[in-house]
C-alpha cells in the first residue's frame, strides 16, 4: 500500500512528463507553422505523438 508521499511523488512524475510533452508539442507546432505545413498534417502529427506518448 502506497503512503501519501509515494502518491505525491508519482503525481509529480506524471506532471513533469506532461510538461515535457507539452513543451515538445509547442516546439513542433512552431516548426510546422514555419515550414507552412497543412493544418491536417499538423493535427495528424500531434495526434501521433500524443498517442505514442500515452501508449
Automatic annotation (TrEMBL):
<protein>
    <submittedName>
        <fullName>Uncharacterized protein</fullName>
    </submittedName>
</protein>
